Known about the structure:
This protein has 7 helices and 6 strands; from the N terminus they run E-H-H-H-E-E-E-H-E-H-E-H-H. It has helices spanning 9-15, 20-25, 27-45, 81-94, 108-116, 124-142, 160-173; strands at residues 3-8, 48-53, 63-67, 70-74, 100-104, 120-122. Helix 1 (9-15) crosses helix 3 (27-45). It is elongated and about 65 Å long.
Amino acid sequence: MGEYLIVDGYNVINAWKEFARLRQTSLEHARELLIAGVSEYAAFKGYRAIVVFDAQEVVGAAAVETVHGIQVVYTSEGETADSWIERRAYELGRGVGKAKVFVVTSDYAEQINILGAGAYRISSREFHEDYLKAKKEIAARLRVPDRALNRNELGGRINGHVLEHLEKLRRRKS
């Protein structure tokens, strides 16, 4: 059945410093960036990923969509992400296929409950560290220099020998 990664979306957004300023101005954009990051991470690690966002104070039914190959869940009115995650972790871990389930959250009560459901816990901080490590491994495999990870430079997208040749040409013209 595979391995699942279930991420408490708002818990991670509130824990990572990368989202500190962004969540104040555009929570939607923070969600989009988290979803994209989890998608990349899950593809690299081979997980089936689910990102769950509370809709506890929102009127309406639950919504589930697939974005970048991962499942994104917005819980129904009155339901917390914690309760949805606990239920799903139990279903996946104890169900017919007995999948290995990892849950990303720093909520202590939720950690205790998901451990009781047979899932493994990963704190938001631990996930952040592993996420950054995975990004570096992806870059190394693609031979993309670290400086190109968060910038939009030509030098980060071309082969080293081409970059050297262009640098030589640039120096001749100076």
